[in-house]
Amino acid sequence: MRISEIEIHEFDYEVARTGTVGGNWVYDPDSTLEPPGFVLTIRTADGTEGHYRGFAFTPPMIAQIEMVAEEHVVGRDPLERREIWQDCWRALRHTDHFGVGPIDVALWDLAGTHYGESVSTLLGGGRDSLPTYASTMFVDDNGGLDGPEAFADFAEACLDRGYEGFKFHGHPDVRPDVDVAICDALADRVGDRMDLMLDASSLYRTYADALEVGRALDALDFRWYEDPFHDGGVSERAVKKLVDELDTPMLGLEHVRTGPYGAANSLASETTDLVRASAHLDGGITGALKTAETAESFGVDVELLLGGPAHAHLMSALRNSSYFEHGLLNPESDWILNQGFEGDPEAVDDDGRMPVPDGPGLGVDVDWAFVERRCTGHRRIGT
């Protein structure tokens, strides 16, 4: 069995009542976004296919897929995923590896279709549903999630829905005082019934601000503190100083595209307590699995960045991962969770848990009518 063709369908989404501030997603009743997406199809000569639906960083992902497709993917045995992964990882070593994840996820989907088994089964996964936390859009100034009471109300609604945890993203205009006030309100309203997390998303520009917020989280018993520094967590000395100063576990490496190798370096230097990994951005299921197992060898947890069926399957097989991230959520708008798929594969069940799809491969179907209706480009690579 050989890969004969790679096909890329580009399209756009429609996200009503949503805007951005400094590139951060917020509720905005007067704005509709149309971000780009794509479906990558890897096809063999006998017609077996695997798919990946992309929803973030579409332009660089497509560009990098095209960089490696002919030389490192077309003509290969699609079941040799690790060999293909290694060749693509090296080939894209200068360009942050954005193209590796889509290729790898599509190959896992293809393998599951070939064997008639779910990706979870191929990974040895043993869970059919996952504990899930609600992950919100950023703080807005538009009447949505615009302050402590709004966040506390939404957290209580998420608790009633069954979510076991709640995470919010800070004010995009860099307002540590507002973020701390929201933390206080959340702890007061639901802190004894939900795990709480803050994702500063690399907003804080000074060490003093990051330390002030971190001390507030210590006092409120937050589960983790995520990526406070404006440099994206690259300055390991600064992060280590903060890790040493605070009791709240630091979740890092979301914005560092060095995969399992960089994670090992950061864990060895004790510059993070918990590790972020992403099948979308860090080399697919293969890359994220490598990172998770690296973290496990250090006795450390790994948390997967945002959702998607690939993460549901992967998390089903991980011992050291506590929550599926369901986001980005807002009571007044809908994000791009399910657009491009048939049905609603990313929706919590009656217990607030995320089901793991049980069909062959990723167990989800592309909504080709949606893709064709919103098509913005199409190309084929191979024979």
Automatic annotation (TrEMBL):
InterPro entries: DgoD-like, Enolase-like_C_sf, Enolase-like_N, Enolase_C-like, Mandelate_racemase_C, Mandelate_racemase_N_dom
GO molecular function, a single term: lyase activity
Residue ranges constituting the Mandelate racemase/muconate lactonizing enzyme C-terminal domain according to the UniProt record: 148-249
Keyword ATP-binding among record annotations: no
Domain of life: Archaea
Signal peptide start-end: none
The entry's keywords: Lyase
Pfam families: MR_MLE_C, MR_MLE_N
UniProt name for this protein: Enolase C-terminal domain-like protein
Organism per entry: Haloplanus litoreus
